[in-house]
Amino acid sequence: MLMEMKLKNLKDENILILGFGREGKDSYSVLRKLFPQKTIAIADKREISNLSEKEKKLLEADKNLRVHFGKNYLKFLKKYSLVIKSPGISIEQVKPFLGKKQKITSQTEIFFDNCPSEIIGVTGTKGKGTTASLIYQILKEAGFKTRLIGNIGRPVLSELFKTDKKTIFVYEISSHQLKNLKKSPHIAVFLNLFPAHLNFFKNFQDYKKAKENIALFQTENDYFIYNSDYIELKNLAKRTRAKKITFNSRLNRQRLKKILKEKNIPLVGKFNLLNLMAAISVVKIYGVPEEKIKRAVNSFQPLPHRLEFVGKYKKIEFYNDSLATVPEATIAGIETFGPKLKTLIFGGEDIPNMRFTSLAKKILKTQIKTLILLPDSGEKIRREIMKQTTSRLKKKIPKILFASSMEEAVERAYKNTADGVCLLSPGAPSFNLFKDYRERGNLFKKFVKKYAINKKF
């Protein structure tokens, strides 16, 4: 009853849920629970024939449900007064199909409008999932009632049924979810910022503008925690009214030594220490004692596809960094392993505005011996390496091999790596060859273990 009162503004709307993925299904579940007899619509670009049997049964069982599936799914939007858009669908894609009086919203907006308790929002181009998970684990260790939501945790609307004013929500929040948001969390964490999702946003400025919403609507009673290595985040700090707390690569190690012995931290890479510093800055606001921080961090399990150790086979250490979907993330992975890195598997979807100059320069300064390139951006990095190569650097060019599949890439890694580290860090999205970064990383792990028992290597 309480939730129906809180969401009463939705009751009289003619609602369409745009996108039938993870968030769309959660939105449908919540609305159907609140309004059992209400007519609700769902639109999705997939054909119904391509849905899973479970999805088909869910749609067929609801007699008060309208469905608009297939390539013309956006043409039906004007029939509905309120559209709840999933984050993976661009607002620019939707705008031509909207009427003047239509409202468009999202799970994130509805959640912020109705959540009665504190929200810790975590964003950044990379590191959101790890940082949000660290904050959640430390608060939980300290005895706080907390829930992890967003991309890394549960979809947010169904969580409103389980909350009270004492619950602290740790929300891993993406640029897609932040776009058009008019409220900011009590604690906003901004980890880093560099070009990403340029196939979704008009340009970097549009992407940056979406991200900035995490802090723009804060009050003087809120907190903005940010990495002062980034000029864009320093400028954003001047525009928010929140209390400011900074961290950066210079202060990072000095501060950590006061709390933790770095050798005991179960995270690899300098950037993960920055993630940890951000998490510690948050929990200090809640007065979590250092002993509980230590205990939580030392028991923390690194997340899959984020510099994930797969195993050591035939003297090669394999690491899965499939979530490295921008060149800057690949650079961070290269810096993590230093001279131990001998083979890099790189490449994915070719995003037109993505630049590889800094990555090419970094590769030429390392001891990487073999570069295994996947379509389509693999060819792009090869050209950039050749462009950056001077006569002095010719001897530094790694052996360059191409692979058309993950299996072929792993096979070539075994054949061309004598010892040291082999890192999958694609530096680009995955959708040209794989369903998503998870499938890409899981296939890497599968074939690493498959070829580990192959005697011909």
Task: Present the secondary structure layout.
Layout: H1 2-6, E1 15-18, H2 22-34, E2 40-44, H3 53-61, E3 65-69, E4 82-85, H4 91-94, E5 103-105, H5 107-114, E6 118-123, H6 128-141, E7 146-150, E8 168-172, H7 175-178, E9 187-190, H8 204-216, E10 223-227, H9 231-239, E11 243-247, H10 252-257, H11 270-285, H12 290-298, E12 308-313, E13 316-320, H13 327-337, E14 341-346, H14 357-364, E15 370-373, H15 377-388, E16 399-402, H16 406-416, E17 420-424, H17 437-451
Helix pairs in contact: 6-11, 6-12, 8-9, 13-14, 14-15, 16-17
Index terms:
6-stranded mixed beta sheet; 457 residues; Protein-Tyrosine Phosphatase, Chain A; single chain; alpha/beta; UDP-N-acetylmuramoyl-L-alanine:D-glutamate ligase; Rossmann fold; globular; 37% helix; 3 domains
Helix % is 25-40%
Mean pLDDT: 91
How are the strands of the biggest sheet laid out side by side? Answer: 7-8-6-9-10-11
| Biggest sheet record | 6 strands, parallel
User: What would the principal axes of the Cα set say about the shape?
Assistant: globular
Q: Name the CATH architecture of the largest domain.
A: 3-Layer(aba) Sandwich
CATH topology annotation of the largest domain: UDP-N-acetylmuramoyl-L-alanine:D-glutamate ligase
CATH superfamily of the largest domain: Mur-like, catalytic domain
The strand count comes to 17
| Number of alpha- plus pi-helical segments | 17
Rounded radius of gyration (Å): 23 Å
